[in-house]
Amino acid sequence: MGIEDKNPNEDKQPEEVKPKEDIYQKLVTVQPKREVDAEDAEDGHKPLDEAELDTSNLTDLQATLHKLYPKFRVDMIDRIAQSAMVARIAPDIFLDQISLTVIDVWESLTLENRITFQEVLNLVYFAFSIGLDGKGRIDALELAGSAKEAAELEKVTQGLGL
Amino acid sequence: MAKPLSYAPITLIEGEQGNGKSNTAVARVVDAYKKDPTIRIFCNFNLYGIPYVHATLAQIIEWLDAGIIRDGFLLIDEHYIGGNARESMNAFGKVLAKFSMTIRKRHLHVILIYPHERMADWIYRWAVTERILCSYDERNHMITLIVKKRKSRPKTIRYYAPQYWGYYDTDELPRLPAKQIGRAIEAARYGGGEDERQNS
Question: If I label B12, which of A60, B110, B129, B189 is the partner at 20 to 30 A Cα–Cα?
Fold first, then answer.
């Protein structure tokens, strides 16, 4: 008697496999929405996902500082400006400082980052005018102080129930 | 639509009792359901007004193993019951820790709710992609969230809580695992000594 070359599993039927979706549909349930004791619950309030989209990542202080102390496109101007805006520039050298800086920046510009002379002059003037007489650092400190005061005030009034 | 393997946010919501943790978790799910009514929702507490599958912690493990819990949202409230850092080495905690490592492959958005992040096992804290700290103002019913995602600055969001009150029951009590209850009762009844056991 020869050995029959037969797959022992040939006659077996594949087991029935239930798709996972069927199981989920059998388990899922819906209960009616609860009645809530809030008169204006459906009164056009923004849902959470919309509120998330509206919110910026910056705090108010950060957003304000970003506006008051901008970054400049040209690297050289930006490097000088970041210091100039919080420096204490004496009024009597203000114009000379601008003049020398404009010339230096203009001569350093390459074809890749070239901008008009007018733009160089304006950007340097804007940056230095923020730092004139130390006004830039004074404004920054005042902002920081106001933000801190506002935060402290909020803490206190929360406790008082105001 | 196939989602990339990286689509697997794990959100950890923390805050004092009554500060809007459950409300925030439910809000996320309800908003997602309204955008896409085909999403699958699994939850260990009761939801109302939207289709979902209620799952105890035991069922969560069983269904994770069976591949049923996938492609949707998994909400676990009072997560410290199973994922408490102190219980991390029991069998339940070990399985949950392994589950944490495979969340991305299951295309799940997991939302864990803890009173405090430190109560979570370190594996969950490591895997978390978003942290939310909640506070609730009873005067105007506004919930304030501080949301911190990985590699981004925290942002503050405020929303009106009552619009989601109808979708869950804030007074629902979580169930502790029965064996834990049994062991605690036995320990309380007999104390630690053999003498006390004989005298009872």
Answer: A60
User: What secondary structure letter does DSSP report for A42?
Assistant: T
**pLDDT tens digits, chain A, 162 residues: what are they?**
444 555 555 555 555 545 555 788 889 999 999 887 765 555 678 899 888 877 655 566 666 676 677 777 777 888 888 888 888 888 899 999 999 999 999 988 877 667 888 888 988 998 898 888 777 777 777 777 776 776 676 666 665 555
Report how far residue B34's alpha carbon sits from residue B26's, in angstroms, rounded to the nearest whole number. 12
Asked if residues B43 and B75 have their Cβ atoms less than 8 Å apart, the reply is yes
Whether B54 has its CB under 8 Å from any CB of chain A: the answer is: yes
Task: Kindly list the distances between the CA atom of residue A110 and the CA atoms of A103, B78, B120, B125, B188, in Å, as whole numbers in the listed order.
Answer: 14, 62, 56, 50, 81
The pTM score is 0.60
Using the Cβ of B162 and the Cβ atoms of chain A, whether some distance falls under 8 Å is answered with yes
SS3 content of chain A, % helix, strand, coil (to 5): 55, 0, 40
Q: Closest approach of chain B CAs to the CA of A51, in angstroms?
A: 6
